[in-house]
Amino acid sequence: MTQLVLFVIFGAITLAAAIAVVTARNLFHAVLWLLLAFFGVAGLYVLLEAPFFAAAQLFIYMGAIGVLIIYALMLTRGVMRQQVPLVNDQWALVAVLAVALLAVLSWLFLQHTWPTVDQAVGPDSLRTLGEALVDPGRYGFPFEVASVLLVMALIGAVTIVRER
Amino acid sequence: MMVQLEWYLILAAALFCVGLYGVLVRRNAVAILMGIELMLNAVNINLLAFWRFTEPAAATGQAFAAFVYAVAAAEVAVGLALIVAIYRNRQTVDMDQINLLKW
Q: What's the CATH number for A1-84?
């Protein structure tokens, strides 16, 4: 029962904040709403018994990505000050399509019987994850590729914004 | 009454659709990036919900979610760098005016 109440609370926070992100007139307010949406998702991760991802959500998304987006917004500030519409002229069509996509997806999810198991998460699920990520026979290689990707993104970002 | 897998899936689908709306409708490039972040979060909710409800003993779902985190971090760093570079060249981040590659 508690779980249900928490799911509704965090789900409502996430969805309301997400809608505010895409409709806010002031882009800085949109970023703050985005941080709230990330917080709601972190709460959902706690409910899904993935505490590592809840913490990572707080650090990576609310911390790193949120600050990065605020920086980008400040560096490009003032460009949207003039009275131009915030959305382009296809917003009505896109809204209808998004609602239709949600309806179709919900219908599919409710129609299908999912092979769920009623099993608790073990106390060492984080250990299992850590061992799987560095095991050469499982996710060791993708893990290294992800590291290379992050280094490339780091170097690429610096190269792109460097003053010439 | 327990929270079922379908509820998480529908919540994630709703979050994805909101993000999709933001990506397709916003004119500011940074706002479009925010929509992409919402969509990536929806994907991660899906991965972790499937992990929790179908195979909580395995590490597969969590491992994939970790890779989505890494890709999202790389994407936002490069994307924001591109936006700053475009702003420096064109003095705008309005996607309707960035049409150099359009014929």
A: 1.20.120.1200
